[in-house]
Design brief:
alpha/beta, Rossmann fold, 4-stranded antiparallel beta sheet, 13 strands, binds adenosine-5'-triphosphate, ABC-type quaternary amine transporter
Length: about 280
């Protein structure tokens, strides 16, 4: 399922203009990353897809249907949503957190638990964690549960709002790898919000670099953005105009090839294949 933002704007009741005239097409079964610093309107845009926020003007379409004519509750249940800090219900066991939407959609408790256990397995969590409560898990494990919950109803669309923002860098890499691995099999349409350039380069088939007020500075593949930043703002944001790059590091990209960065982690480019492979 593809998503299209068509000239959307959002002015909140207190007069804050969060998004102005934003347009973007998100192709089906790919991962699009909204990349930008705090307050530029990323969450507002993400929430327009499942009608947690309605645009002041313009429209959001899913497979050419305007979401404004969809029932908001049904819409929310049909779209996966993963947020920062997992947002798990503290008084429910892990397996029941995963099965929440299935229960809301009418599954029996045992059906929801069975599927919940399958999903835990899918996101790389041991079955022994199923009966714990969220506070008995690490931050990284909680995020995995959040991803499992987002996937529970097998949605075509997955919205991810800084899902790995609150975990340490190594766990974050693990979670990114796991998501790349899952996406290879599941082929969801993912809209992913982050302010982390490396995360965007790793996960995005398409990246929209955002400026304040929900304006796009550039939309393109990771390679286009690194190799041909549209302007100084993008170049500064992705750090490609800074010097001192001597040692290189490379990390694999989901869709093949490698992200290459300097010793300080600043991205330098995308390679199809590394010498010696
Ligand atoms: N309910 C609200 N009422 C008024 N203003 C809001 C509301 N929600 C968000 N805003 C404002 O809209 C702007 C965009 O916020 P938004 O949360 O979409 O940005 P963001 O890019 O996701 O930021 P962050 O990365 O910090 O989450 C900000 O100025 C924010 O203060």
């Amino acid at each position: 399922m593809g998503i299209e933002f068509r000239n959307v704007s959002k002015i909140y009741d207190d007069g804050t203009e969060a998004v102005r005239d934003f347009s973007l097409t998100i192709p089906s079964r790919t991962c699009t990353v909204l990349l930008g610093s705090s307050g530029c309107g990323k969450t507002t845009l993400l929430r327009m897809v499942n009608r947690m926020v309605d645009p002041t003007s313009g429209s959001v379409l899913i497979d050419d249907d305007d979401v404004s004519s969809a029932n908001p509750v049904n819409l929310r249940r049909s779209i996966g949503y993963v947020m920062q800090n997992a947002g798990l219900l503290p008084h429910r066991r892990v397996v029941d957190n995963v099965g929440t939407v299935l229960r809301l959609n009418g599954a029996s408790k045992s059906e929801a638990r069975e599927r919940g256990r399958e999903l835990l397995d899918m996101v790389g969590l041991d079955q022994s964690l199923a009966d714990r409560y969220p506070e008995q898990l690490s931050g990284g494990q909680q995020q995995r549960v959040g991803v499992a919950r987002g996937l529970a109803a097998d949605p075509n669309i997955l919205l991810m709002d800084e899902p790995f923002g609150a975990v340490d860098p190594l766990v974050r890499l693990d979670l990114q790898r796991e998501l790349m691995h899952l996406q290879k099999d599941l082929q969801k349409t993912i809209l992913f919000v982050t302010h982390d350039i490396d995360e965007a380069l790793t996960l995005g088939d398409q990246i929209a670099v955002m400026q304040s007020g929900g304006k796009t500075a550039q939309v393109g593949s990771p390679q286009e953005i690194i190799e041909n930043p549209a302007d100084d703002f993008v170049a500064r944001f992705v750090g490609v105009d800074e010097g001192g790059r001597r040692e290189l590091a490379a990390s694999p990209r989901r869709s093949g090839g490698w992200n290459v960065s300097d010793a300080a982690g600043r991205p330098l480019g995308v390679l199809g294949q590394l010498a010696g492979e």
